[in-house]
Amino acid sequence: VQLQESGPGLLKPSQTLSLTCTVSSGSLSSGNYYWSWIRQHPGKGLEWIGYIYQGGSTYYNPSLKSRVLMSIDASRNQFSLKMTSLTAADTAFYYCARAAAAAPDFWGPGTLVTVSS
Amino acid sequence: QSVLTQPPSLSGAPGQRVTISCTGSSSNIGADFGVHWYQQFPGTAPRLLIYADTHRSSGVPGRFSGSKSGTSASLAIIGLQPEDEADYYCQSFDSSLSGWVFGGGTKVAVL
Fold this sequence. Notes:
The structure holds two protein chains of two kinds.
Chain A: E1 2-6, E2 10-11, E3 17-24, E4 34-40, E5 46-53, E6 58-60, E7 68-73, E8 78-83, E9 92-99, E10 104-107, E11 111-115
Parallel strand pairs in A: 2-11
Antiparallel strand pairs in A: 1-3, 3-8, 4-5, 4-9, 5-6, 7-8, 9-10, 9-11
Chain B: E1 9-12, E2 17-23, E3 36-40, E4 47-51, E5 55-56, E6 64-69, E7 72-78, E8 86-94, E9 99-102, E10 106-110
Parallel strand pairs in B: 1-10
Antiparallel strand pairs in B: 2-7, 3-4, 3-8, 4-5, 6-7, 8-9, 8-10
C-alpha cells in the first residue's frame, strides 16, 4: 500500500486548504480501515487531525472540528481533507495515513503547507 | 502541550539500553487503550515500530520492545545502534477526546 498527498503548498490566511491522498493498491471501500490525516508543525510533534471510516463516518480532533471536513472518493481511490479559515498556525507538514485499527501503519511522505500573506 | 508525556531527549552509547517513557492518564493509557510507537528520521514520515503495546511491526529489529503498566508505557531499545538515532513518538486513543493522542516525541542520540 502506498499513499501520496497532493495539494497546494502555499496559501494565504483565511483561505481553505484542500488536500487529497491517493491510495495505490487495494480499494478504499474494502477492508476495515481508518483513513487518516495527521500534521506536524516544523520541528514539533505529531497532531491527529481526524479520520474517516470506509462507510463515511468521520471523527475529528475537537480542537479542529469546526474547520475540518473529510471525505472519500472510492471511485478514484482517494480521500480528502478540507480545512477552512487558515492561519499561520496551520503551517505544517500534513500526512495521510491508513490505520487498520488504532495505529497508522502506512503513511504518505507528507506535504508541507505554508500559510503566509 | 501533549496529552501523552515523553522525555524530550535521551542518549546512549552503542550497545547500551535506552528506555523511553510515555505517561498518560485514566482516559487513555490507563483505560487500557493500546499504545503504539513510531520512529521518525529527519525529513521523512513516521514509521510504525510497535503496535498494541508490545507487537513489533514487520521488519522491525528485535532490539525494540514495548511494554505497558497502569497509565504509562515504555519503548526499550536493547543494544542501541547508530542507525537508531531518530525521534520516537508514542500514541494512544483518548476517550475524552474520542480520538488519537500523541506524545511530544523523544529525540534519541547515539553517542
